[in-house]
Amino acid sequence: MGSSKVLYRAEPADQRLVEPLDMMTLIYQRRSGITHMVGEPVPQMLAAMGDDAVDAAILAKRLAKTFDLGGAADAVAVLSERLEELAELGLVERITDA
């Protein structure tokens, strides 16, 4: 049996209000009524995800077009951790592709 792949999908952009505030960004989720205060790279990650279900490697490729992420393996590892954190906060949905 093959292992399952974990993908992540951001809530649709029209379901969240994003307001930059100095070094932080406020993200209000319409569905939950919760406002999250986040720093970089969260807003950039959500924007790069768009409406697609992505894994950390796909997200790293998208972000590398705009940002210097350093080593690809390191970037994927860090983005994997950030995606898990965002899933725990409810800002992204964790999808298992069996």
Automatic annotation (TrEMBL):
Domain of life assignment: Bacteria
InterPro entries: PqqD-rel_X
Protein name: HPr-rel-A system PqqD family peptide chaperone
Native source organism of the sequence: Sphingorhabdus buctiana
